[in-house]
Amino acid sequence: MSAVLMRAPGVYRPQPDTWLLARAMTEAALPAGASVLDACTGTGALAIHAARTGAAAVTAVDLSRAAVASAWLNSRLNGVRLELLCGDVTEVVAGRTFDVIVANPPYVPSDRPVPDGRAARAWDAGRHGRSLLDPLCAMMPRLLNNGGTALLVHSGLSGTATSLRQLRSGGLKATVVARTVIPFGPVLTRRSGWLRDRGLIRPGQRHEELVVIRADRTR
Q1: How many other CB atoms are there within 10 angstroms of residue 160's CB atom?
Q2: What tens digit of pLDDT does each residue of 114-124 get?
Q3: Which of 68, 74, 167, 199 could form a disulfide with 174 if both were Cys (CB 3.0 to 4.6 A apart)?
């Protein structure tokens, strides 16, 4: 994907997980005219990609006001229309359904009970990296229309098997459709000792696997 993307200070910059999920969206050949939810939109990169590839309506949600403002600006710069909502995605779209859901939520395991600073909210996700992954997996079956598809990206450090199990327990057909290995960034490098002590990485390991999970609600 190519797009003009601006971001306010503290807003998550599109990174390899963003591009991996964008490629998975393209390869999934999502239906034209779909209603799409982009959970944890950040700059709006994935929402813009969905709009450009045939979605009829795209709803982008983020807890950060700065992220929503950035996504609004980027939607204008790229000539697409988005519905933008600021708040907890588990609350602001409750009761609604979508044909497609894409999500790049915070997923980095952290020893801090609360993210250390505004920017850290974009990646810190509790001791197991699942403070938002768990509620998202639980609500996916309720959010998807019949025949709908969800695409979720996160680190293997956050429990790929756990996400698959939770999605399947909700009646969805779930499988990993994309993987890539990337070097640790600054955050994981700083936490490598803690991750090693918890048994999440091997001594000396300085890379992580990113996965995209596809979950389908069959008719």
Answers
A1: 17
A2: 666 666 778 88
A3: 167
CA nearest to 45, candidates 72, 84, 14, 67: 14
Kindly tell me the number of DSSP H helices and DSSP E strands found in the chain: 8, 7
The strand pair at 173-183 and 207-216 is best described as antiparallel
Distance of CA 81 to the CA centre of its chain: 20
CB of 151 closer than 8 Å to CB of 103: yes
For residue 116, with 0-12 CB atoms within 10 Å meaning exposed, 13-18 middle and 19 or more buried, which class applies? Answer: exposed
**Contact call for residues 137 and 163 (beta carbons, < 8 A):** yes
Q: Reply yes or no on whether the pLDDT at 104 is more than 90.
A: yes
Indicate the residue type of 70: S
What is the C-alpha separation between 4 and 213, in angstroms, rounded?
Answer: 27
Using a 10 angstrom Cβ sphere, with 0-12 exposed, 13-18 middle and 19 or more buried, the burial of residue 145 is: middle
**3-class SS of residue 161:** helix
DSSP-assigned letter for residue 73:
H
pLDDT in tens, 109-151: 998 766 666 667 788 888 899 999 999 999 999 999 999 999 9
- Give the pLDDT confidence score for residue 30 in this predicted structure: 84
